[in-house]
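Notes, p. 3: input format for complexes.
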Amino acid sequence: MVFEPHPELDEILKMMGEAGRHLAEIGASEGAAGNISVCLRWPVELRARFQLVEEIGLPQLVPELAGATLLVSGSGRRLREILDDPEANIGCIVVNEGGWAGRLYTSNRRRFERVTSEFNSHLAVHYDQMLANALNFHAIIHAQPLRLTYLSQIPRYQDEKYLNTHLLRWQPETIINLPEGIGFIPFQIPGSLELKVANVESMRRHRVVIWAKHGLMARSDVSVKRAADLIDYAETAASYENLNLSGGEKGEGLSVEEIRAVCKTLGIQQTIF
Ligand SMILES: [Zn+2]
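Output follows (273 residues plus zinc ion):
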C-alpha cells in the first residue's frame, strides 16, 4: 500500500528508469531482455507526456481493475534506456469499464508497437495481488540475472527447499529481505498460458519467483526500486553460491543456528531454516 501524497507520474517513470538501469548494471537485462510494469489505483494525468490514445484488448478479463493505470515497458525496448527517455519506452494503459479492454496512451516518440510480450504474466499477477491484498500500487519486474538463471539449470537447485537453504545462507540480509524464500517454477515457453498460471500461483507465496532456464519475476507493493532490490539480494546470494561451487565448496555459510538467531533477534518469521 502506498499512502498519500501519492508519487507523481514523473517520479514513478524515473524510478522505473533507475530500476531498469540498475538491473542492466548487475547483468540482469542483456539486450532487450526483461520488462517492468506498475499498476496504480490513484488518478494520473497522462496526456501531457503521452499524447496518442488507442484502444487495445487486454490478455484477460480484469473488471475490478476498471480505472486503474498500468505503466508498461514496450516490447523489444531496453530496460537501461527507460531512464533517458521514458516516453520512448513506456506505454500507459487505463483499464476500461468492464475490464476487457483498455486505452493505451503513448508518446509520438514511442519506439515500440506493443507493450511487452510478457504482459499477460504481469497483468495476471497485478490482478491477483491487488485484489487479494486490496492494494493501490503494485510493481513487477521480469529480469534475467545470470547467476540465478544458471543455478536454475542444475537439477538439485530446482527443488525449492534445496535452493533456499543454499542461497539464503551467505549473508544475514538475505533471510531478512526474503523471509518467505524464493519460488521456483519449471521451464515454460515465454509468454505462454502455462507460464502465466504457474507464476501467479507461486507469486502468491513469494515476492521473487525463478522461471527455470529463463530468469525471474519480482514484485513489490511499495516501489519499483524495492522490487529491483529483491532481485539484487537474490542475485547476490546466487553469486556467493556460484563462487562457492567454483571454489570447491569451501564456504561454511551461516549455520542454521546463526540464521535462526538473526531471525529471532529481529522478529523475522520464516520457515526455511
Ligand atoms: Zn525473459
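The first strand starts at residue 35 and ends at 40.
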